[in-house]
Amino acid sequence: MAFIRRTSPHAHTASTTGDIMRWVMLATLPGLVVLTHFFGWGSLINVALSCLTAVASEALVLKLRKRPVLFYLKDYSALVTAVLLGLALPPYAPWWLVVIGSASAIILAKQLYGGLGFNPFNPAMVGYVILLISFPVEMTRWATPQTLLADAQSLPSLMSALQSVFLGNSIGIDGYTGATPLDLFKAQQGLLVEQINAAQPLFSKASFAGAGWEWVNFAFLAGGIFLLYKRAFTWHAPISMLLALSIMAFLFYGGGNSESGGSLMLHLFSGGTMLGAFFIITDPVSSAVSNKGRIIYGAGIGILIYIIRVWGNYPDAIAFAVLLMNFAAPFIDYYTIPRTYGHTKPSRATRGRDS
Amino acid sequence: MSDSTANNIIKTFDIPGGVHPPENKAQSMQLPLGEVSIPSELIYPLNQHIGTPAIAIVEVGQKVLAGQKIADAVGALSVPVHASTSGTISAIEDRILPHTSGMKGPCIVLKTDGHHQFIDYQPCADYRQLSSAELIEKIRQAGIIGLGGAGFPTAIKLDPRNTCIDTLILNGTECEPYITADDRLMQDYADDIVAGAELLAYILGEPANIIIGIEDNKPDAIKAMQQAAKNTRIEIASFPTKYPSGGEKQLIQILTNKEVPSGKLPAMLGIVMQNVATAMAAYRAVRFGEALTWRITTLVGEALDVQRNLKVLLGTSVEHLLNELGFQSNQASRLIMGGPMMGVALPDIKVPVIKTTACIIAPSHEEMPDQPDAQACIRCGLCAEACPVSLLPQQLYWYAKSEEYERLQNHNLFDCIECGACSYVCPSTIPLVQYYRAAKGNILQQQQEKIRSDHARQRFEFRQARIERAEAEKEVKRAVRKEAAEKAKALAAKRKAEAAQNPENNNRNNDAPALDPVALAMARVKAKEQDPAVQKSKLERALTSAQGRVEKLQTRLDNAETDQLEKFESQVKQAQLRVQDAQKQLDAFNNTKSNTLNSDPTTLEKSDAESATTTISNSKVLKPASPETLDAATAAIERAKAKTEAMALMSQEEKLHEQLQSLEKRIAKAQLNLQNAQAENSEHIAVFKAGLEKMQAKLATTQAELTSLQKENQ
After folding, report:
1. Could you tell me how many CB contacts below 8 A there are between chain A and chain B?
2. What average pLDDT does this structure show over B148-161?
3. What residues of A are in contact with residue B262 (Cβ under 8 Å)?
4. How far is A28 from chain B (nearest CA, A)?
5. Considering only residues 197 to 236 of chain A, which have any Cβ-Cβ distance to chain B shorter than 8 Å?
6. Are B129 and B375 in contact (CB under 8 A)?
7. Neighbours of A132 (CB within 10 A)
8. Between residues B501 and B238, the one the model is more confident about
9. Helices and strands of chain A, counted as H and E runs
């Protein structure tokens, strides 16, 4: 009788790429819940809209590329991209903004490069940057956290949120928009850090960074730790990024003077820091491959984030920093091959063989 | 370990990476070691080891006994094969081998008689009376190879030449899931293994450390080995279970924290490692004279009714074993020889158990489901985390797919031990090891091709150098000869002058040469040169080499490209000029010689041939040569030959006449050349003119000489 001829190994772990992607989505849940708690339905609508667009775009391109649609959709990678983009976009963003962002992420940044595994750039961040450059007004209008609302005021209802998103009917939403902590801090430069903290309710009503934001970041940190525990990725890139950002913030804090770049806590727990550290830069496809390489990659992102935040023109900088380091990843890979068993020193990818 | 009295407190080290697949070792350890009935037919592949296949030394129809050698080793890297029971050789033919490809290979087939009669083994009560070399030969003759799976001839590993071995390691790790053959062996044959360790230590010159390494998931085996090794200096080391701890390089790292340098052998570190089963087989071969005719094989998998370890006669077909244990073939998802991580999927049930068969797995579909199709690599890095030799499997996969072989080698592809840990963890179920095997094969093939072409180039370059060297040597010789000829010419001219002054003294002068030593030496040289035999042989050599070179030039010319033709044409003209020049000189020389009345046909012939040679070599200098040049050169040789032959038959007078005629002919030719040159307004007009004038002058001299000769004769 004939048996299947398969080369070794014959044993296999049960976990699949789809599993990893599902874990990542699961790990974003705390962040999404906290976002919804502080800013209302906006982020949830973003995520839902983004996911629908992403799956539709992915299916369309796969069909055009004559690939088995269901087989590729089952890796859940399009959904992960969509969820991350939806979380990064401002709540109550107009529907077309989300659709454009999500479609460009999947079609331009992923499928045109050959689909999963072949994209040199993080698709979600490409989508984000396209929107940020094309629609700066819509992209910088963030919602006001619940903490800052007047006692009589409450977050917009689901209906008014949907109206705002789909009909552009901003009545009832206008009062809810405001600046992000990083935005606000940047706008107030020239004052002492203490003065800013005292004057702005976004800071004065916060526990350690920015009202609402600090807990959002905290939730993403918790999700990230869950993924680390699940070994969805290694600690190297996120820890290195957070460490580099911390060192930069520490070095340039300047004792809170009028030239200060902002406190350590502000940088770690505002904006997209934790989302970036554990969900964006850990995208393995577009990052460096070796552990050493990922340390360098993460550190580069951390430093760039600080530079762009403090001395650049954009209040938050995760997307630009990530894309810039995506460029550098193949280069980092050439020089960070680990030392192989039986070799005295690590080899170089580009040089003739040594040791 | 808790047992403080045992000599087992050995510090162990961790290896990077590794995986923890489900061990699945319990199911085959429920029953003690079992035996199988002798099948009606046994199959012995001639190549069960790494190295040269053995060669059959029995004939079809021959009766053999158990333990009898039926195939002998060929060369050093080879071991014999022995019959495992008594019977008759029924065939020596190609049978399906235990290899995934299902390929066939030469096998000896034995029809058993059921008596299981052994040959008389030669026991050896005290092997310490024998030398290492004698013991190694005994082990080799017993057909013993690495029984852990690699199948490397044990005798070779035990003879590490000039390296000093300080550590002997017996590998009882058995890190592959499912396999329990060594576990069973260590529990049932602990004393033999310890005796084997002592034997191997004796052969290796008593290394300082003897360690038996066992993973901590085999507590019974550890206990048994500790018991057996109690009063010896053998140490039992146990360490945490992790795949692939049992790899030779990995176990060395675990026990010594040393790494075997890439591409080198453990002996370089003073370490020799043998499997526990190998050690036992070596001991039995030396102590009892036993050949390797059986081994313990684990039969496991949910498609079997009974799962256990069996004492199997080598050559027994897998089918026979499975049938004895109640094999449900419709339930089996596949059939694996070896472990699930590195084992070979068997193409057929009829393959035999060979020396390296530690395990046969017949898994059910639930146990080992078919792998889903490979998804895209997301470079998650789980493979790099699992790699025990710190490679970047995701990068290797990328480069293997795009066939970037240089990058693969830069990423140390050849340090991959193909343990399968990367494929095991890959969430996209990519058959990574398969890609690496294919890439390794392709690279090795390319390297062999490169070596072949390098050899060809070296051969060609060496040949060119040799030809050039020979050419240079000839050039030197030619220069020496030319010098001698010129001296002779000068001497002849002197004589001629004397003869002209004093014709009647001519003969006397010849009879009584000048007394000064220079003249004497010159005369000697001349005498030697004029010795007909010497001259003839020299001449023949000169001619042969000239002809050879002409042929060479011809070949080179044939290879010349058309776009260089213009260049050739100008070179041809120059070459023609040189030919003429040479001819002129030759003739002048000939004339002088004939004028001295001393001219010898062979001398003439020689100088003619020489000048022809020079002409050819001149034309050769003008690379690449033209057909005209060659023709001229060849013609010159032919002319020289014809002339020599003719001259030998002619009287002095006739010779002069002949020369006159040829001179006149050449002058006519030269005039024609000159006219052509003038018509083309060539830059060589002056040269042509000068040549013509010289020839005319010579003509006049020759005529004068002829006249004087005629007068004298009268």
Report:
1. 186
2. 87
3. 340-343, 355
4. 18
5. 231-234
6. no
7. 20
8. B238
9. 17, 2
DSSP B448-463: HHHHHHHHHHHHHHHH
Model pTM above 0.80: no
Q: Is the peptide bond between A91 and the residue preceding it cis, with omega within 30 degrees of 0? A: no
Do A180 and A315 contact (CB within 8 A), yes or no? yes
Residue with the larger pLDDT of the pair B171 and A255: B171
Three-state SS at B604: helix
Count of helices and strands (H, E) across chain B: 21, 17
Q: Give B431 to chain A, closest Cα distance, Å.
A: 8
DSSP for residue B239 = E
Pairing of strands A142-143, B271-275: unpaired
pLDDT in tens, A325-353: 999 999 999 999 999 999 988 888 776 54
A290 touches chain B (CB under 8 A): yes
Q: In the prediction, which pLDDT does B619 show? A: 45
Distance of CA A306 to the CA centre of its chain: 15
CB B240 within 8 A of CB B175: no
- pLDDT for A32-91, tens place per residue? 999 999 988 989 999 999 999 999 999 999 999 999 999 999 899 999 999 999 999 998
Show the DSSP H helices in A230-317 as ranges: 236-251, 264-268, 273-275, 291-311
d(CA A175, CA B465): 93
Give me the pLDDT at residue B159, please: 87
Cβ contacts (< 8 Å) between A293 and chain B: which residues?
none
Which residues are within 8 A (CB) of B480 and not within 5 positions of it... i.e. 6 or more apart?
none
If you search the block for the tokens 């070979």, which residue do you land on? Answer: B344
* Short-list B131, B281, B291, CA closest to B203: B131
| Predicted local distance difference test score (pLDDT) of residue B577 | 72
CA distance B181 to B68: 25
Residue type, A264: L
Backbone CA torsion sign across A177, A182, A185, A189: negative
Task: Name chain A contacts of B372, Cβ cutoff 8 Å.
Answer: 16
- pLDDT tens track for A32-43: 999 999 988 989
What average pLDDT does this structure show over A226-241? 93
Query: Strand B69-72 relative to strand B55-56: parallel, antiparallel, unpaired?
Result: antiparallel
Asked whether residue B208 carries a pLDDT value surpassing 50, the answer given is: yes
- B27-41, B353-367, B643-657: least confident range: B643-657
B381–A285 CB contact, under 8 Å: no
Tell me if A341 and B427 make a contact (CB, 8 A cut-off). Answer: no
Who's near A98: CB < 8 A, 6+ residues apart? A46, A49, A50, A53, A85, A86, A89
What ipTM was estimated for this complex?
A: 0.89
H helix runs in B502-600, sequence order: 506-511, 517-530, 532-559, 565-595
Interface of A with B in 335-354 (CB under 8 A): 337-344, 347-353
